[in-house]
């Protein structure tokens, strides 16, 4: 569904449903606007990813290839690629223009719960991490992608080569979300082990573990302008954390 926010003197006073998008045959597990705002992408338990035109509500593309539930789909910062994670243990990279699957990444051993693109500012730090482990490795222009899985690992992929360049091990249960810190030097993750963790991916180590909630930690996000992280949990709480 698309919702319109009504404003009165600058305040949001309500929401009105503009359109209802019909097309998926099972649970919709992920939705996102493309950077331009003209289209929406969605992922579903029906094993498909769909691209919708905002102005008309029409489905303009359907991407099919995953063999199980597509848990998440996210658009690259330049709006050209879609990364998707699935119950089939794979990550797929799609060309949004042609609908072609460019890569199928098979490094995880369980359901892929989350994927997130690395901001452009992360590129030099990821390259530094790669050359730290392998001094002869060539620098890559990226793009790069981070993923989290029920296999309890976090992985960073170089989409140019289709290779896993960083693996982070430390969570004691399913990894629910992993994203890059705005500085580009760290990855922050949350998991069903009830923790929030900060990773120095250059040295492949966890630098901070926070017992964040009394139950599974299911999601997190960064404030865009302030040093805050927000987490959400099965314990029915949201918590705001200050990065120090």
Task: Present the secondary structure layout.
Elements: E1 2-8, E2 11-19, E3 28-33, E4 39-44, E5 48-53, E6 59-64, E7 70-75, E8 81-86, E9 91-95, E10 101-105, E11 112-117, H1 123-133, E12 144-149, E13 153-158, E14 163-169, E15 175-180, E16 186-191, E17 195-200, E18 205-211, E19 217-222, E20 228-233, E21 238-242
Antiparallel strand pairs: 1-2, 3-4, 4-5, 5-6, 7-8, 8-9, 9-10, 11-12, 12-13, 13-14, 15-16, 16-17, 17-18, 19-20, 20-21
What does the radius of gyration come to?
A: 18 Å
β-sheet strand percentage: over 45%
Helix content: under 10%
Tally of alpha and pi helices? 1
Mean pLDDT: 93
Helix and strand pattern: EEEEEEEEEEEHEEEEEEEEEE
Largest sheet: 4 strands, antiparallel
Question: Which features would summarize this protein structure in a list?
Answer:
4-stranded antiparallel beta sheet; 5% helix; globular; 244 residues; mainly beta
Protein model, in words:
With 244 residues, the protein is mainly beta. Helices cover 5% and strands 53% of the residues. It has one helix and 21 strands. The strands form six sheets. The protein has a four-stranded antiparallel beta sheet with strand order 3-4-5-6, with no helix packed on it. A four-stranded antiparallel beta sheet has the order 7-8-9-10, with no helix packed on it. The longest helix is centred in the middle third of the chain and has 11 residues, at 123-133. The protein is globular. It starts with a strand and ends with a strand. The relative contact order is 0.09.
